[in-house]
Amino acid sequence: MTIRRNLRICCMMFVLSLATRSVTGMEITPLSWGLNVGDTFRLVMVTNGTTAATSQDITSYDTFVNGQNLNLITYNSSSLTWQAIGTTLTSYASSDASRYSSQANAAPTFGLDGTQISNAGAFWSFSHSAPINKSVDGSGNLVTVADFSFVWTGFGTDGQPVSQQNYDSSGSPDGTVQSALGATATYQGYDFGNFQPLPDQTLGVEIGRAGANQNGWAAAGEQSVLTTQYRMYAISQPITVTAVPEPSSCILGLTGISLILIVDRYRNRRKR
């Protein structure tokens, strides 16, 4: 009797230990965030690692963000597809139809911790409900980046490249120049008070700030040294909420049932 009782207690303690054991990776749980079955949303995050902004190819930034352990973020045990949120001179974050970011207004967005970032139709309003400051480390654990961590964006308040008017030596407008990821620009201003041209100036690439939830999340200043290492924002594919239970819950349940059946079988055999 004592042996059977101790064996049952050991099995139950083993099941409890499985339930409390940390698991590598992050399984998102949108039902616990107030979303309902059938709702569609996107995740937005900031990378834990940093990169330079020397490339004019937006897909190179996709490669960077997907190398930041984002495969450890799963829903229904499946990894998600991610793209960088950024603007180059040939791909604008808010209007390039091939980019998830241009579709960000179609559904609400959430941080990795379930905090809502924007309502449907409001991602590109630039007034977010909360900052995009959640990331994952090398084990897929949730981390919060420092408020004043800078992020390469390449876009101003409309998701487009930053533009600057150029003037000729007589003060007449002489076209505009633009800067974006991978491309700074040189322009000439004009001093209309003294009627003379100003020295050439550099139009840097726009950077945002993790921790800001107004315009500063995207446009907190400019950086002209493109080899500087900053973070990047990333946005997921659209995700539709399903009623499928979390895989970890299923595994724990099956494990517990199996162990109890083993104990009962052992007890029955001892009775014979």
Question: What labels describe this entry?
Answer:
elongated; nine-stranded mixed β-sheet; alpha+beta; 272 residues
Biggest sheet architecture: 9 strands, mixed
Helix share, percent: 10-25%
* Class by SSE composition: alpha+beta
Order of secondary-structure elements: HEEHEEEEEEEEEEEEEEEEH
Sequence-ordered SSE layout with sheet pairings:
Elements: H1 2-20, E1 26-27, E2 40-46, H2 58-66, E3 73-75, E4 78-79, E5 82-85, E6 109-110, E7 116-118, E8 134-136, E9 142-144, E10 150-152, E11 162-167, E12 173-179, E13 185-191, E14 196-203, E15 205-209, E16 221-223, E17 231-236, E18 239-240, H3 247-271
Parallel strand pairs: 1-3, 2-6, 10-17
Antiparallel strand pairs: 2-17, 2-18, 3-4, 5-17, 6-7, 8-9, 10-15, 11-12, 13-14, 15-16
Helix pairs in contact: 1-3
Structure description:
The protein has a domain at 1-24 and 246-272. The chain is built from 3 helices and 18 strands. It has helices at 2-20, 58-66, 247-271, and strands spanning 26-27, 40-46, 73-75, 78-79, 82-85, 109-110, 116-118, 134-136, 142-144, 150-152, 162-167, 173-179, 185-191, 196-203, 205-209, 221-223, 231-236, 239-240. The strands form 5 sheets. Strands 2, 5, 6, 7, 10, 15, 16, 17 and 18 form a 9-stranded mixed β-sheet that branches. Helix 1 runs antiparallel to helix 3 (247-271). The longest helix is centred in the last third of the chain and has 25 residues, at 247-271. It starts with a helix and ends with a helix.
